[in-house]
Design goal:
about 260 residues, mainly beta, Immunoglobulin-like, 21 strands
Length: about 260
Amino acid sequence: MRRLTLVQSLSIIMLMVLMATSPSLAALRDGYLGDVALVAWLEGDTVKVALANESTTRKSITIASEGWDQRWRPFFLDRTVVVPARTVLVEAFTLSSVWRGEPLAIQASTWDRTAVVEVQTQEIFEPDSYVVRSQAEVGVRVDLGFFAADLQNSYLMVDEHYRGITPDDTGRIQVRQVEGGFRYSLEQRRVEKIEPYMMLSMWAPQPRTDATVFSFSIYKYSDDAYWNYYQDEIPGPTILVYGRNLALQDNSHLYQPPTPSWDRW
């Protein structure tokens, strides 16, 4: 019994160390504004933000650009949105014409809290959706071009399980397909190049509350015995999961004027 208790204690300590050092798990903790979970991602020249309000009261939240362009203007104009109770709200923000591919982040704030959330791009990871219902299947396409160009590392490892905020928010990750290299076409009588990619599949968790976020990582490594686990970690996408008690309200297709209005410029 004493030995079992010691093993459990060591497991808890290792989990705490992992939560403190892993970039992907740190991003999960950052994606909360009180009891509102947030994720943000980029589609073309549009930043989309999903806010999951688990409480029984509506929330007034201001979304603003975290950072400035070369003219000291925000990458998009801020807007105050009202998130209804028990609702996942999706909003869209159009980037200004002076954005040149700089890293993006949003600042979400209420009268007493502020959270800064990174805007996810699809340079490496392309999930089916960044907002999914609980226990839905989630597919993620991974562009392996970065790995093909890496001459230092010979191997790529995928997390066996994704991780969420609580120990229950976990599930197995399956590698469905890996493609890349060359093939010969008999009809065209030519060698064709196949861009390298990998398809992953997983089932979203059933959150203990009404919403949660989860993520995973992949890792580059070689035969070097001094491989650094975190130095070669590539954090995966952060995906928002909502339960059946929450309604989804997608306003990303609607024109929403900024707060204050455009004429301030």
